[in-house]
Amino acid sequence: xxxxxxxxxxxxxxxxxxxxxxxxxxxxxxxxxxxxxxxxxxxxxxxxxxxxxxxxxxxxxxxxxxxxxxxxxxxxxxxxxxxxxxxxxxxxxxxxxxxxxxxxxxxxxxxxxxxxxxxxxxxxxxxxxxxxxxxxxxxxxxxxxxxxxxxxxxxxxxxxxxxxxxxxxxxxxxxxxxxxxxxxxxxxxxxxxxxxxxxxxxxxxxxxxxxxxxxxxxxxxxxxxxxxxxxxxxxxxxxxxxxxxxxxxxxxxxxxxxxxxxxxxxxxxxxxxxxxxxxxxxxxxxxxxxxxxxxxxxxxxxxxxxxxxxxxxxxxx
Length: 317
Hints:
By secondary structure, the chain is mostly helical. It has 2 domains: 8-39 and 63-209 and 283-314, no CATH class; 211-281, no CATH class. The chain is 66% helix and 6% strand. The protein has 10 helices and 3 strands. The chain has helices at residues 2-48, 54-57, 63-95, 98-102, 108-137, 139-145, 159-178, 181-203, 262-271, 286-314, and strands at residues 211-215, 227-234, 275-281. Helix 5 (108-137) packs antiparallel against helix 7 (159-178) and helix 5 packs antiparallel against helix 10 (286-314). The protein is elongated, with a radius of gyration of 26 Å.
């Protein structure tokens, strides 16, 4: 059964290995240059004590490469679900070859367990290799911008592996119900995008209770590149205020400051007790959030695999 699984899916494995090799070359070449540029820039600005603007100057010409790596890292789990998960069961059922296997001494449970087991093992191997490379490649950017915010969090650590497992399991279970490769692939695209969006927008910010900080006006920022969830202007007693340059929304004591410009207005408001109320997740929670989200998607993948197993065992021959 193991050899048969290899024969049926060797082209996918070979293509995946070739794609990983090409990506590794790109990341190693560009990552080494980025690490060198970052080290040189830090040494230079440290000597002149001018590292405050480093994030506004470094890597400004590497936007195309960064966008490409981010797009690939985010898209790979979905592609695994489309090209590895969706056809794994659906293709054999669609072509009727599963009946030949079931007519032999191999049980349905062993048939699907072997196919699914190897597929998920390949996802873990591919995903672990890719995310290790991307995490290393992204380290200079992490130092500048942090890694807990959306766009950085999703392509590093261990969550990309969990995303891949979920996408492939989703393709497998949809394939057991539709028995059509194209329908399974379409289901993976819609289901994966919907679940990922829900988690990013509504679930991830609440893995742990956010911290709250009160910051003065005038561009004050939290240290350590945290993930800022909200930033609200409040008055001296903590009530939210909507301040614009019109008199109707400015305290009477600061009316004259409106004519002196934004800086003068900001100073006057601060003197009146106005400040920023910021809710945030500290950067130190990166690995806790990684573990929580990875566990969530692995649990979803396990549930989908069990559902697929149940479906195959009860399906008509």
